[in-house]
Design a protein that fits this description.
mainly alpha, 5 helices
């Protein structure tokens, strides 16, 4: 699989690992998964489970948000839905029950 077919998040995690001097093995140990699993995710052969996506967001301090693993059209739909909700309910309603 060439790099352009890999999920954006997989490329972002790979870049984060390089920038922080970490290896796929380091990531596998932190997540308590096999290095083969990490390799599959980062090569784009499998998507990681949701719990891993959330953990990666925390490990990378938000540089790779869990939503980044979703297809672009789904991310756009989530953004649009959130905007509609905020328009309908206003920012002032966030803290009220």
């Amino acid at each position: 699989m060439n790099d352009t077919n890999r999920p954006t998040a997989a490329r972002a995690v790979s870049a984060w690992l390089r920038a922080n001097g970490r290896s796929q093995g380091d990531l596998a140990r932190a997540l308590d998964v096999t290095p083969a699993a990490v390799s599959k995710w980062l090569r784009g052969y499998q998507l990681p489970p949701v719990w891993v996506r959330v953990a990666l967001s925390r490990i990378t301090d938000g540089d790779v948000p869990a939503s980044m693993w979703m297809p672009e059209d789904q991310r756009e739909r989530i953004g649009a839905a959130a905007a509609r909700f905020m328009d309908a309910h206003g920012a002032a309603d966030r803290g009220s029950k």
